[in-house]
Every structure is written in C-alpha cells, then in structure tokens.
Amino acid sequence: MLNEQHIQVVKSTIPLLESAGPAITAHFYQRMFEHNPELQNIFNMSNQKNGRQGVALFEAVAAYAKNIDDLAALSQAVERIAHKHTSFSIQAPQYAIVGHHLIETLRELAADAFTKEVEEAWTHAYEFLAGIFINREKELYEQSAQGLGGWNGARNFIVKEKTKESALVTSFVLEPEDGGVILEYSPGQYLGVELTPNTSDYTEIRQYSLSTKPNSKSYRISVKRELGEFGGIVSNYLHDHVNAGDAIKVHAPAGDFYFEDKQKPVVLISAGVGITPMQSMLEYLNDTQYKHPVLYLHACRNQEEHSFANRTSAIVKENNWSQTIWYESAEAAPEHIKIGFMNLSEVQLPIMDGDFYLCGPVAFMKFIKNQLIELGVGEERIHYEVFGPHSDF
Length: 393
Fold this sequence. Notes:
The protein is an alpha/beta fold and 393 residues long. 40% of the residues lie in helices and 19% in strands. The strands form two sheets. The chain has a six-stranded antiparallel beta sheet with strand order 4-3-6-1-2-5. Strands 10-9-8-7-11-12 form a six-stranded parallel beta sheet, with helices on both faces.
C-alpha cells in the first residue's frame, strides 16, 4: 500500500529527478533493452533513436512524482496511455519488468541519495501506479473482446484497397481474413498495426487513425510517408511494399480521443496528417445527418499535400457546412483557401457553445489551443490527439 510517508519521500526526490533530466530515462531504456531485448518488439525503436520516448517517459515520471498526492490531475494522461498500451497488447507481467529496471536505474544513477527509504517509497509508488494501469487496461481488453466482432491481441486482416490520397498520404482499406464482423469504433480512434518490415530487426507496432466512418465490414487507415533520419520504417514499408491482397496484423481500435455527440456546433481543426481522425468524424457527421453547424479547418503545405480535398468539399457543400483551408503557399486558390499560418480570427467560430477537436503536430496544437483560449473557449471544450509518445501542452 502507498502511505503518506511514501508520498512525502517520493515528492522529496523531485529535485533529484529534475537535475538528472532525461538522462534517467535514457539509462533506463538502455538497461532494459540490454537485459530484456524482447521488449524491442513492442517499443517504437525509432522514438528511442530520436529521443521522443525518453523525454515522454521522463515527463510522465516527473508528473507522477509531483501529483502523487492528487492523482486525479493525471486521470486524462492515464486514460490516454492506457488506450495506447492496449494497441501494443501490453500485459501485466511486463509492468514488473519495467518496474525492476526503473528501480535499478534510480539505484545506479542516484548513488548515495537512493536510500532504503527512497527505494521502498518508489517501489510502492510504482506498484501503485502499475496497478492503476493494469486494472484499466484489463477493462479495455475485456470491452474489445466482448464487443460484437471484437478480439484481443493481433488479428489477421487483408488489404482490399490501396489509394493515394495526396503526395505523402496513402489509404489502406482492411478486411478481416476470417471474413467475420469487426468491432465498431468511435470516429477519432486508431488501430494498432503490427508488421515486420524487411528494413527492421524487430516486430514493429504503430498506431494509425481510422479515416472514415464505421461500417462493421472494414477499416480504413491513411498513412503519411514519414521522411527523415529516424522515422518512417513502417510508413515507408506500407507505402512501398504492402499492396492489395497482402495480409497484416491488426490490434483492436483504441483511443480516448473521439467525437462525442453533445448536440452542439462542432469545429474540426487539423494540420498535415492530423486530418485523418477529422475525416473520420466528418464522414460520421455526414452519415448521421448532424443537425448542428460544422466548421472544418485544415492547414498543410500546399495543394499536393492536401488529403481528401475533393471529398471534404463535397460533404461540406452537401450539408451547407463551412470549411477554411490554409496553405503555406499557393499561386492561385479558391475562396476558402488562405495563405500562411492558421489564424482563427479570420473565421467565425462558435466560441460560446462549440466543441473543438484538434489533431496535428504538437507545436501546431499548442498554437491553436492558445488562440482558442484567448478567444474565450473553455479548455473543457478543447479535445486533442497526439501522434506518437504522450505529450501534454
């Protein structure tokens, strides 16, 4: 059990954690993968190389220490991470492995500061938090398994269609190899896709947003080809080597970011490939003949990188909704296209009663969230999705 003494000891180590910074998590991952190399088939090794996973873990550990006496402040982060864990099929025994290496990392790096009292407090604190995750993930696994067409772990799917949506984004329509029904999902959620690319030494699992409305027969993901030194192992493999007729393994839909029907105006805001969950929501709102105003806002580099442009325009026109698009540059553009950074003061927003859904690079979402708050939108009506390791802003 976690008692008051444990809480106070953990909080007393916050300066130690902050002084060490992400070096703690870098050491932790190096240690864990050396002793348990099989976990490299679960963790995104690209995020290990670019440092994102280490930074995310350090921020999570520090946030836990700071809020250990007020865990309600972490409830949103816990829910988001628990959903992500289910798409990796994380199981309870793996928490014991992670906990062991976390404690040994603190022992090795903190030296004299890591007293028996500190070890006991952090051990109880980790076990307490692990128990929260294990219990919540157990509930999520049960929901997936017990739902109509549901399953746990990986299930074989066949690529039925492969469609180029823009210069960097390609869609894949997936149907179950067994011909059975599939689990419904909420617009905005994602799939875990499991592959073993010929360019990787490991099994790779990635999460891709579902990009169309639920239909009980197939899923559609729309994948951006990731360029650069550290990313793109799976996205490039999908683009270059996975075609119609090929089989891939899929984990059940997950994610705590999804459309909630509150019978209010809806604003969908995205940048780049963040358009994918928004397209799912837009298709759903169109299919259900949503009776309230919908405003669709998107930013991307140019027309060539604008996914779903024709489909979006058709839906917006059919329902008499509204859209505004921002390109970084364009020689000529229709009236609803603007040039430059997204500026929310240029559009009429339902400030007082609308729900706002955001997806895109973290810097973009921070930029947009700040604009919304300055305009008077309450934070409780701003919902967002982060691709990759968990991040708050």
